[in-house]
Amino acid sequence: MRFSRQMKTVEEALQALLDKLTTLDEEQVQIKEAYGRILAHDIVATCDMPPFDRSPLDGFAVRAADTVHATVEQPVRLRVVETVAAGKVPIIPLEAGCATRIMTGAMMPAGADAVIMFEQTENPGEISEVVGVKRVMRAGENISRRGEEIAMGSVVAKAGERINAGTLAILATFGYTQVSVIRKPRVGLLSTGIELVGIEEPLTPGKIRNSNTTMLSALIAEAGGIPVQYPVLPDDLAGAKEKLTAYIQEVDMLVSSGGVSVGDYDVIASLVDDPDVELLFNRIAMRPGSPTTSLLLSGKPVLALSGNPGACFVGFELFARPALQRQGGQPIVSHRSIKAKLGISYEKPCPYPRYLRGRLATKDGLLLAQPDFNDKAGNLGTLKNSECLIVIPAGGKGKQAGELVEVIVHAAPSWREEV
Ligand SMILES: Nc1nc2c(c(=O)[nH]1)N[C@H]1C(S)=C(S)[C@@H](COP(=O)(O)OP(=O)(O)OC[C@H]3O[C@@H](n4cnc5c(N)ncnc54)[C@H](O)[C@@H]3O)O[C@H]1N2
Ligand code: MOO
Predict the structure, then answer these.
(1) pLDDT tens digit string along 102-114?
(2) What is the mean pLDDT of residues 216-245?
(3) Residues 368, 343: contact at Cβ < 8 Å?
(4) How far is the CA of 266 from the centre of ligand 2 (A)?
(5) Could you say which EC number(s) this protein's record lists (predicted)?
């Protein structure tokens, strides 16, 4: 059975997983802790912005009608009745022949309908009881009107958006001290295999250090989840299943690495025929990571990635990140691929689509996708350089430099310029 199961395409497998996932519930966080979180609801403006008519300049609030004869040679002289600083309320309504000295951000006095900047008046550096206006003003000129940017009640940020510095400026301006966000998915992390030793342990023959758990913890945190690390799974099926069943009660998803192929000690693989699990997929038409498996245990998802670090990384990007995005209420980023020109020919034949790690670069202003040739599934030295997955379609020919390829961007591109 384990050797004959039908393969799903990457798209079919991802859909099968996403179909089983729902967005988690919401929680309230203080605005100080909200950076990077996902909004659970639309945010509405609680007042107009600006909240009052204000001056965008340091200058004089005037009545435009008073300035119709003003010229540089013959300025119109107005009596200065008051000075208004930002934060103060003007008390003297402006009458004909008068002006109010006004600072940037200060409230407009009643009766004024324009602001002239200091630089367009006589003796701009001087504080005097009379101001000489050197040009004609239009009614409404240089006034930021109440609500001109944002009207009270309008939606200023949408559910599902990630809170960034700009969102925080909006929340602060509208007086939100707390905000409802989607709870972060708790992701249990497991690895399998008695060859694995801890980072601090010495290497003895046959052993390697467990690098996947540390790598996956970072990827989970980066994707908005909370990694919860569990001990390496025992390599007997009954023991492993018991542990998995206990761990999954404490988290929203389990992600494991290793033990999914057809080896004698592949405990996750042995679970796929278990009547207590609902198998979503097992073996995918892709390279690397074809043994990637997913199943539901106690109704919650287990995503079993390949043990090979390169395949584990690619499997995370293609399946775990979208799954976390779905649970975390975010848009599914891998559904949006872009097209770029392949920078270097990739001619390795492959019966399945190949997801090459790579990076985005520019040459003469054009976008290039540069594959990483150190792409054996067991290699890990260049995982740190990956910012995208370049899709090479199945078939014997691969793709030539300059051909358009599909690219799934998973990290902020560095846009290095190729020379
Ligand atoms: N007869 C077959 N053998 C294999 C097949 C196959 O189809 N038929 N598929 C190969 C492919 S493709 C892959 S990928 C691997 C997947 O193996 P598993 O996911 O079961 O992983 P393991 O066998 O446990 O380990 C593979 C490799 O990765 C190392 N590893 C495991 N865990 C970690 C970790 N946490 N940190 C660092 N490195 C880890 C492990 O020592 C192995 O070297 O199977 C092929 N075989
Ligand atoms: O997933 Mo295995 O990498 O496909 O080598």
Answers:
(1) 999 999 999 999 9
(2) 91
(3) yes
(4) 14
(5) 2.10.1.1
Q: What is the pLDDT of residue 1?
A: 44
CA of 218 to the centre of ligand 2 (A): 21
pTM of the shown model = 0.89
10 Å CB burial of residue 347 (0-12, 13-18, 19+) is exposed
What is the rounded (10 degree) CA torsion for 191, 194, 197, 203? -140
Nearest ligand to the C-alpha atom of residue 383: 1
> Looking at this predicted complex, what is its ipTM?
0.94
Mean pLDDT computed over 277-294: 94
Q: How far, in Å, CA of 85 to CA of 66, rounded?
A: 23
Atom in ligand 1 nearest the alpha carbon of residue 311 = 14
Euclidean distance between the first and final Cα of the chain, in Å?
52
Find out whether the beta carbon of 196 lies less than 6 Å from any atom of ligand 1. yes
Protein residue with its CA nearest to atom 17 in ligand 1: 261
| Main-chain phi, psi angles of 227, to 5 degrees | -75, 135
* Residue type at 118 in one-letter notation: F
Q: Which atom of ligand 2 is nearest to the CA of 288?
A: 4
* Ligand 1 pocket check for 259: Cβ under 6 Å: yes
Domains and CATH numbers, the chain: 10-24+184-334 (3.40.980.10), 27-49+148-182 (3.90.105.10), 59-133 (2.170.190.11), 337-417 (2.40.340.10)
Q: Which of 33-42, 86-95, 228-237, 247-256 has the lowest mean pLDDT?
A: 228-237
Q: How far apart, in whole angstroms, are the C-alpha atoms of residue 386 and residue 388? A: 6
Residue by residue, DSSP assigns 269-316 as HHHTT-TTEEEEEE-BS-BS-TT-EEEEETTEEEEEE-SSHHHHHHHI
Alpha carbons 62 and 71: distance in angstroms, whole number: 15
- What does the angle CA 133 – CA 137 – CA 140 come to, to the nearest 5 degrees? 135
Please report which helix (H) or strand (E) contains residue 34, including its range: none
Which amino acids bring their CB within 6 angstroms of ligand 2?
A: 287-291, 306, 308, 311, 377
Ligand 1 centroid from CA 210, angstroms: 13
CA distance 176 to 29: 11
Q: How far apart are CA 179 and CA 192, in angstroms?
A: 40
Q: Quote the pLDDT of residue 335.
A: 63
Instruction: Looking at mean pLDDT, say which of 15-19, 275-279, 363-367 comes out highest.
Output: 15-19
